[in-house]
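Budget justification aside, the reviewers requested a transparent look at the raw inputs and outputs of the sequence design task funded under Objective 1. We therefore reproduce one unedited record. The lines immediately below are the structure tokens for a 578-residue chain.
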């Protein structure tokens, strides 16, 4: 009998062991990002996660190897850094090897021991350094020579040749204002509203892109389109951003660094050989809207075949600040598409769309009509009793010209052909959209779609409940929080424009560390908070102009609680440095 029981126990034990999922090391991150390029941190933090479904599972040790050769890392060799075995449960470790060099890719992996002290190796990951100091920039800051009151957005282009086989290419672009980057007619990346907001006279951000596949043998062209963003705020509101001490016409600096298969390196920088002109974007305000005259489109402007003989030369600009550093964060993107859930034709010139959900973002319209027809695309959160758009709850802080610069309204001038328009340098808070033309146009329910725009932080957790109400509340909280997540740590929705202190975000911040991976976003926002501080006051998130300087609207409490929440949620003692 005892023997039968022992055999039965052994049988089930074997089934249990054989049915176990093997231990895996996953989600390798550098500075909390997946295989990033353009890191400036000389001691990047490396992290991972152990997947082990056994009861009592725990990591008992770790070892990290880093090398410039991925094959060395596969074989467990780290010439840049071999940490040696550390008996620790740490899942976030700062690099402590040889000095990292700029423009270099480093491969790494981690070897961990589980609860039974058996070792498991992770797949190989990598990170790639960027400028790692302003001294490595070759490009100059350039602009179009216009003043802060000039409306049309500036376009820039540069032609160049590649005569050898390209191994890799990286574009590094810093901008005061907002930008879109193009190479050979193709938009680079899917970022929106880049770079992120900073105190522009104290800190500026650059973004790195892998553009190897966009280059072609022979003739090439780079195109850059600049928007005002918060740098040149032309619209008027109660916070006086139009009087900000950093305000200036948008400018940018770019290095296109090409590595050829023979080992040589060539850099295409911004200099006086670039050309500039205005185009179809006749006005843009991150606060109100974008005006686009489709008749002024310059098709192919970022391709090498384009004739830029009517374009003019550029002007040098001074560096906006002495601190130009990498944007190491999940970018803002158009994350989700919302089709209209209902559609109503008021008359031959007016249409009402309902997207069923309040959100931050933009809309894209497909429309045709008589050349020169003006179409106004108005965004709002509620309707009047008669079914028309009601902006009275969200335009109360706006102090601009409601006819020439209407609040949350894009203005499109039709070309006479089939036109497609989506603003590049603006976002709104809305559920309803009213499209009004000065001449008859024909639209249907599919003519307008909405994009939910926010910092694209991945979900890392979830909450399930037997109560549908709790599920709806969590969805509403997440959706509302994401609508406010635009690269910094904003405590308000753009549409509502409420002046709220930093403390307002602390409790939801604690909640959303549970469900959203927004640590890179918060770490990037932290230097923005610090550099916006004045010697006698605390860190601002919202500002008002007082005696010629932008000052905060919150207190030291937020400055203390934000790093406290970060530390509790991440077990990290290092937040960020300005």
């Amino acid at each position: 009998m005892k023997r039968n029981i022992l055999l039965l126990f052994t049988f089930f034990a074997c089934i249990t062991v054989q049915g176990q999922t093997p231990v895996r090391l996953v989600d390798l991150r550098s500075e909390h990002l997946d295989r990033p390029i353009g890191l400036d941190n000389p001691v990047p933090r490396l992290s991972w996660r152990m997947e082990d479904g056994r009861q009592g599972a725990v990591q008992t040790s770790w070892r990290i190897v880093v090398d410039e050769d991925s094959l060395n890392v596969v074989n467990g060799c780290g010439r840049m850094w071999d940490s040696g075995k550390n008996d620790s449960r740490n899942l976030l470790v700062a690099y402590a090897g040889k000095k990292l060099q700029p423009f270099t890719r480093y491969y790494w992996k981690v070897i961990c021991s589980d609860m039974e002290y058996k070792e498991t190796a992770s797949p190989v990951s990598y990170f790639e350094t960027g400028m790692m100091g302003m001294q490595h920039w070759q490009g100059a800051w350039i602009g179009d020579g216009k003043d802060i009151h000039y409306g049309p957005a500036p376009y820039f282009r540069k032609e160049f040749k590649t005569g050898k086989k390209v191994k890799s290419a990286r574009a590094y672009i810093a901008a005061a204002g907002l930008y879109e980057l193009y190479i050979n007619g193709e938009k680079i990346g899917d970022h929106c509203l880049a770079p992120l907001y900073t105190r522009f006279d104290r800190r500026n951000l650059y973004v790195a892109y892998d553009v190897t596949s966009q280059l072609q043998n022979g003739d090439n062209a780079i195109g850059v389109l600049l928007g005002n963003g918060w740098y040149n705020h032309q619209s008027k509101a109660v916070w006086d951003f139009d009087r900000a001490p950093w305000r200036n016409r948008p400018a940018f600096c770019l290095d296109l660094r090409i590595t050829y298969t023979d080992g040589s390196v060539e850099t295409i920088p911004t200099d006086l050989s670039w050309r500039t002109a205005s185009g179809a974007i006749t006005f843009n305000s991150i606060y109100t809207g974008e005006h686009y005259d489709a008749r002024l489109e310059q098709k192919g402007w970022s391709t090498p075949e384009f004739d830029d003989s009517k374009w003019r030369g550029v002007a040098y600009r001074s560096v906006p600040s002495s601190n130009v550093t990498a944007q190491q964060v999940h970018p803002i993107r158009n994350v989700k598409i919302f089709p209209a859930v209902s559609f109503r034709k008021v008359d031959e010139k007016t249409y009402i769309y309902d997207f069923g959900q309040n959100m931050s973002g933009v809309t894209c319209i497909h429309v045709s009509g008589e050349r020169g027809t003006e179409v106004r695309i108005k965004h709002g959160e509620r309707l009047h009793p008669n079914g028309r758009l009601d902006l009275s709850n969200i335009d109360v802080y706006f102090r601009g010209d409601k006819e020439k610069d209407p609040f949350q309204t894009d203005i499109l001038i039709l070309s006479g052909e089939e036109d497609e328009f989506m603003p590049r340098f603006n976002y709104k808070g809305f559920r309803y959209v009213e499209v009004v033309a000065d001449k008859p146009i024909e639209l249907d329910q599919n003519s307008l779609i909405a994009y939910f725009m926010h910092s694209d932080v991945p979900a890392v957790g979830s909450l399930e409940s037997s109560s549908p109400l709790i599920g709806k509340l969590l969805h509403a909280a997440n959706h509302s929080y994401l609508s406010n997540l635009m690269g910094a740590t904003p405590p308000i929705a753009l549409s509502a424009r409420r002046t709220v202190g930093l403390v307002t975000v602390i409790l939801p911040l604690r909640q959303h560390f549970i469900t959203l991976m927004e640590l890179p976003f918060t770490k990037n926002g932290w230097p923005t908070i610090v550099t916006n501080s004045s010697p006698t006051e605390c860190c601002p998130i919202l500002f008002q102009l007082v005696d010629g300087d932008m000052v905060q609207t919150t207190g030291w409490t937020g400055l203390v609680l934000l790093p406290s929440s970060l530390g509790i949620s991440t077990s990290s003692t290092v937040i960020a440095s300005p």
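Confidence is low (pLDDT under 50) at residues 1-18, 490-507, 535-557. The first strand starts at residue 24 and ends at 30. Computational costs for records of this kind are itemized in the attached budget.
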